[in-house]
Task: structure prediction
Amino acid sequence: MEIERFLRLLLFSSESSVPLWQVFEMRTFLALDIDEAARRGIELAVRQLDPPPATLRWVESENLHVTLNFLGEIDDTALHEVCDLVSDVAADHEPFDFTVRGITLEPRHKPHMFWVGVGEGAAAMAALQRDLTAALAGVGFRAETRTFRPHLTLARIKFVRHPRELAAHVLPFAETIFGACHADCVSVYTSELAREGSKYTAIARLPLG
Result:
């Protein structure tokens, strides 16, 4: 991974002016970041959790975000085009506030993640996501067919012996409000998979309004 990153950033082909890093594809997604006060509130709740036997992979707190669109693996040329497109869509939406609240298991019938939901501001967020999806579909990206349910992923559940017991354990946090956040930009992230978990890099933050 370190060699690939070095090539992406520094090396150029001896036969062309095209950077060698353009041949690499990067897992890319669009997201809204959360405020530090909300992040600290979630961290405090996670420290209080003591789930029954289960195999979990927790998301590092600095990686918490609300995903708007997952774009898959795209190359550098497409990434620049995406940033231009997202900038245009973001400019048509005013900044807004939203709250992050409640820890739940999803999906409930066969849970495979903990997540924190979005309360106030969900409608404005959904409108932004809908316009981004339409614009991306217009340039060839696959449109998401599932209903958008804004959330922050806290942990992925690899194995749990008693799902109902796990659900009961997080029930006290079901209505907890962790904080208010201000959305003033759409962040474009790339993701690198590693043994210890995904590493996210913000490529651009494109302002709303």
